[in-house]
Design brief:
Layout: E1 10-12, H1 18-26, E2 32-35, H2 46-53, E3 57-62, H3 65-69, E4 83-88, H4 89-97, H5 100-104, E5 106-112, H6 122-125, H7 127-131, E6 141-146, E7 159-166, E8 169-174, H8 189-193, H9 217-221, E9 225-229, E10 234-237, E11 242-247, E12 252-260, H10 265-269, H11 272-295, H12 301-311
Parallel strand pairs: 1-2
Antiparallel strand pairs: 2-10, 3-4, 3-5, 5-6, 6-12, 7-10, 7-12, 8-9, 8-11
Helix pairs in contact: 11-12
């Protein structure tokens, strides 16, 4: 049984038309969990994924979890700033089986699925249509790791559908109105760090809140919402909503997301969180340009450039 821990609605797709979805959730920018969209799709177990994409090259984020256990950092790591490594999916699967993924918090993020057969079914092809979402900004991308992984508190600048395909996740959410009570990294930080330190990430840790350093966090916590996402569930997450995603246990977790154009257009124009991030990208251009030039003189320039572009 699906356990929702907040006022976030839980709605079965059989009771929801595209027009109702638009009026109730898309136009108002309200999160909702939708069940039944992919009820006939298989469970994306490790064995199933190995059979489908074992030869794919993936980028692995190495969060070096031990560093955070020893207190070398009081802040949650920012996803776009951790060390990256390219390897075959079969190699990552072996690291997962032997426990290395859990030990070092090795995480797959933004794995493109366009050229795979994983989403080449009628269920995946009609997912957006069933909700009336007709203008995707990205293709489907996969996120995978151990249940110990935590994304860090951040927001997206586009509307997001997050689909749970294996395991169970807990998602902590805050509305856009709490942005400055959650202490986002400054926009100008992009000048020095490029896309390694994004202004769409919060400086606070929800696991170990520091109210002395971040006193307004207490106000934000009054608006905290939580939801449990089980296999087959889809979370519609409007642009600007803060969220921190974590696993329920130490087992493998896997989800897929897709970003969509913000509708109606006035919601996009009035979304200050979106403009903050766009300004951050402009500030990061000199840093990114310098790294791209440097990459041309590396032993493996293609791999280095791929990792630079991966952060954008």
């Amino acid at each position: 049984m699906n356990l929702s821990i907040s006022s976030i609605p839980l709605v079965d797709i059989s009771t929801l038309t595209p027009e109702q979805f638009s009026q109730r959730y898309q136009q108002t920018g309200t999160p909702v969990v939708i069940t039944g969209l992919l009820e006939n799709e298989p469970d994306w177990t490790l064995e199933y994924l190995c059979a489908k994409i074992s030869d794919c090259q993936v980028i692995v984020r190495n969060y070096e979890r031990a560093k955070y256990k020893t207190g070398q950092s009081k802040r949650s790591p920012v996803g776009s700033g951790v060390a990256l490594e390219t390897m075959g999916f079969s190699n990552y699967a072996e690291l997962l089986r032997c426990g290395n993924v859990q030990e070092n918090d090795l995480y797959l993020g933004k794995v493109p699925l366009k050229n795979t057969t994983l989403t080449n079914t009628s269920g995946w092809k009609t997912l957006g249509k069933k909700l009336g979402l007709t203008h995707p900004v990205t293709d489907f991308k996969m996120y995978m790791g151990s249940g110990i992984h935590r994304s860090g508190l951040h927001y997206d600048i586009m509307d997001n559908t997050l689909i749970q395909v294996h395991g169970v996740k807990k998602i902590v959410l805050f509305p856009p109105s709490q942005t400055y009570n959650l202490y986002p990294f400054p926009i100008l930080a992009h000048l020095r760090h490029g896309m390694k330190l994004r202004c769409c990430f919060s400086q606070v840790s929800l696991e170990q809140p520091d109210f002395a350093a971040f006193p307004k966090l207490k106000q934000a916590l009054e608006h905290k919402q939580e939801v449990i996402l089980e296999r087959g569930d889809t979370l519609y997450l409007p642009a600007g909503w803060w969220h921190d995603v974590s696993g329920i246990d130490h087992t493998m977790i896997c989800s897929v997301n897709r970003f969509w154009r913000i509708y109606p257009t006035r919601r996009a124009w009035l979304n200050w969180q979106k403009w903050r991030s766009i300004l951050g990208v402009f500030c990061a251009i000199p840093y990114i340009g310098g790294n791209l030039i440097t990459a041309l003189f590396q032993p493996d320039p293609q791999s280095t450039i791929r990792q630079i572009l991966y952060r954008i």
